Amino acid sequence: MDRPALNGFIIIEQLETEFNLQSYPVTWPIGSGDRFCGVYHRPTNKVLLYTKGGRGKGATGIQYDLDDPALQDLIEADLYEQLQEEVELLQVLGEEPSREDIMAGRVTPIFFGSAFNNFGVDLFLNSFIQMSCRPIPTRAKGNPAALLPVVEEEQRVGISGSSSSSLGTGSSSSSGGSIEGLVRPDSPHFSGLVFKLQANMDPKHRDKVAFVRVVSGRFQKGMKAKVARTGRTLSLSRPQQMFAQSRATVQEGFAGDVIGLTNPGAFAIGDTIYAGPEINFPPIPSFSPELFAYMRCAPNQKKAFNKGIDGLLGEGAMQVLYSQDEYITDPILAAVGQLQFEVVQYRMKDEYGVDTTLEPLGFSMARWVIGSWPAVEAAGRMFNTQIVKDRYGRPVLLFRNEFAFKQVMAEEGDKLGDLSPYALPPGS
Which candidate, 400, 362, 397, places its Cα nearest to that of 380? Predict the structure, then answer.
């Protein structure tokens, strides 16, 4: 919220329309951008106003009752009036959801705040601890020895149908001994899912840390595990736990724990790692980008530029596309919001010493062609559309607007076949 943001009610509406997900705002912002001064905490009906701390110090917050007359003098007049109106509207959104609804994924809590200014972070962390659930069985595909039947186990633990997720486009293969099932957290076999990569956490060593959530079994420092995507066996010899700037070596971990592993180039977001019978968790899709721009640098910085692009691409800080023209080598950054561009440019300068420029492209939608290049060739020339490729060489269609997308689908939809708004790793 330290940058100008959409109104909270618009965000709630987007969650419902885009993801079919009901939400419950636990905190509500007072202002945004440089006018963001605090939050309203719904469970306690309190207002917390924050003051920025000095250099190296955290923010300080003072709590007030919502009907405290002092708020009118502490909050700008228009923001105070807006807060009172929005609090009334929040009452219409319904009662606080039950813990069961949150655990089943039927409702998601929403917290507004600023990590940069440390506004509202304390409320989020305290609520996160209270709302956290114990590890539950996770869907996967793999060796029957490591999995339990889906229906039987879901009925036993009471998992709702809404929490089930897709296991990709592939089907179960009885001939290969692979089935779809559930991995229980108390399984004797270790398994984990890489959900985040972060490069240059220690700038002196150019390290890249993979954050792994332990899904089942027991993790032990120095154990050997296999990466399902590559089949490569690794020694997990330098596990760490991290919070803010602090780090601690991990000796063991269990289901639900998050562990940081340092091994540059070995992991990708969505990787399954396991010890024991082979399993593979569903891939993690990327968000559908809406902004596109060529990123360029000076010729004498090209080597560091390419290194930076590879590093940031690997950690999922952005999506990168490339022109079909072999003479155009500049990458096309694909982002969900403008802030992603600014973060990438800042990190390229701060971590790799490269000054970059952006050339925006006039497109607002991207679709991955499931049928690959034969489907694109069959469709031929398309109106207001540019054909590019992703990091894996797969075709991606960029549309100027939704009208152009609908027109192409009406004219060439039968030839193009299925299109996906987001990318999945090859073989998903």
Answer: 397
Angle at 135 between CA 181 and CA 96, to 5 degrees: 115
With left for phi above 0 and alpha for psi between -120 and 50, is residue 259 left, alpha or beta?
Answer: beta
177 has pLDDT over 90: no
Contact criterion met (CB below 8 Å) for 45 and 91: no
**Burial class (CB within 10 angstroms; exposed 0-12, middle 13-18, buried 19+) of 146:** buried
**346-392: per-residue pLDDT in tens?**
989 988 899 999 999 999 999 999 999 999 999 988 888 999 999 88
- Which tens digits make up the pLDDT trace of 189-210? 999 999 988 876 666 656 678 8
Tell me, yes or no, if the pTM score tops 0.90. no
Q: Are 280 and 272 in contact (CB under 8 A)?
A: yes
Name the residue among 152, 160, 215, 156 with its Cα closest to residue 179: 152
CA torsion 115-118-121-123 (nearest 10°) is -160
Residues 6+ apart with CB under 8 A from 37: 30, 31, 49, 50, 75, 76, 79
Side chain identity, residue 362: G
Hey, is 258 helix, strand or coil? strand
**Tokens standing for residue 103:** 């655990």
Quick one: tokens of 144? 């029957």
CA angle in degrees (0–180, nearest 5) for 389-392-398: 25
| Amino acid of residue 174 | S
Q: What is the C-alpha separation between 393 and 373, in angstroms, rounded?
A: 10
For residue 305, what are its two tokens? 């530029």
Distances (CA, A) of 131 to 20, 22, 104, 158, 425: 21, 16, 12, 18, 31
Which of 378, 212, 359 is CA-nearest to residue 291? 359
Residue at 271: amino acid letter? D
Q: Tell me if residue 300 falls in helix, strand or coil.
A: helix
Reduced to 3 states, what is the DSSP secondary structure of residue 232?
coil
Beta carbons of 313 and 304 less than 8 angstroms apart: no
405-428: per-residue pLDDT in tens?
A: 999 999 999 999 999 888 776 655
User: What DSSP character marks residue 317?
Assistant: S
Q: Which of 283, 271, 284, 256 is nearest to 194 (CA)?
A: 271
Tokens of 337: 């919001």
